[in-house]
Amino acid sequence: MARRTARLLLSLRKPLLTALIVALAVVQGGCSSVFFYPDDITYVTPDRLNLDYEDVYLDTADGERLHGWWLPAQADGDEPRGTVYFLHGNAQNISSHILNVAWLPEQGYNVFTIDYRGFGRSTGDADIEGALHDVETGFRWLVNRDDVGERPIHILGQSLGGALGIALASEWVQREERPALDGVILDGTFSGFRGIAREKLDAFWLTWPFQVPLSWTIPSEYEGVERIDDIAPVPVMVIHSVRDGIIPFHHGVALYEAAGEPKRFLQTDTGHGSTFVIPAYREAVLEFLGEGESGVR
Hints:
With about 300 residues, this protein is α/β, with parallel strands linked by helices. It has a single domain, classed as Alpha/Beta hydrolase fold, catalytic domain (Rossmann fold). The protein is about 35% helix and about 20% strand. The strands form two sheets. An eight-stranded mixed beta sheet has the order 2-3-6-4-7-8-9-10, with helices on both faces. A two-stranded parallel ribbon has the order 1-5. Strand 7 (about 155-160), helix 6 (about 160-175) and strand 8 form a beta-alpha-beta unit. Helix 5 (about 130-145) packs across helix 6 (about 160-175). It starts with a helix and ends in a 7-residue tail after the last helix. It comes from Marinobacter pelagius. InterPro entries: AB_hydrolase_fold, Hydrolase_4. It holds the Pfam family Hydrolase_4.
């Protein structure tokens, strides 16, 4: 429904008709239409960015097939410094988000990223439960690689990907899974699915009456602000821009305040999802990643 509606909106010019279709999509699909706007367009592939890569296909326990990219570190004969599991935002697919992490292989880090069900070349229809299942499927594949488990492993989630990353990391830590996580980075992430759904529905006059009942269709156990403390003692870095027009700054502040130690907050000044166009912000993330490099496990 979200994908079909997004395409319709591109061709509609009458504001009232557009508003009615958006409202109908939200009411019929619950809050899923607030979170997921996938497409299957290939915007760029890693080779166009001078990166080596491998297409990865994973089968989920409930019958979906996920597509991802493995980008090996450009280590020049040295051991990789670690691995970053990148979870992208709620629109398009990995090919439109790859620039956010394309700079990491040159810095010595492997990168693995997947498309959630319904995105890109992954099968199925996007929803919160399915996406949570998908990110754990991808992470289990990643940590079982022979060339990954003995070096630091970090999760980097942007926007929706950060919310999924909080759920994954908190459960991984609480279950004492191995290998252990070395750090979690959240960039432009909302503090909770229910909270951001209410904000988005409240901002639109046709969906305003549905903000409370629809937000309660989201299970409460996925609220990041209530789960982030469970990641401790794994270090957490929260990144948020004062100019984020999609996920307001107060969401990052709330996540940081709720997180346990050790934690770090990076206040930025870019548009949503544009953090890594600024070299200084890349350096701050590299410093955080480097703190987890304590040698072979």
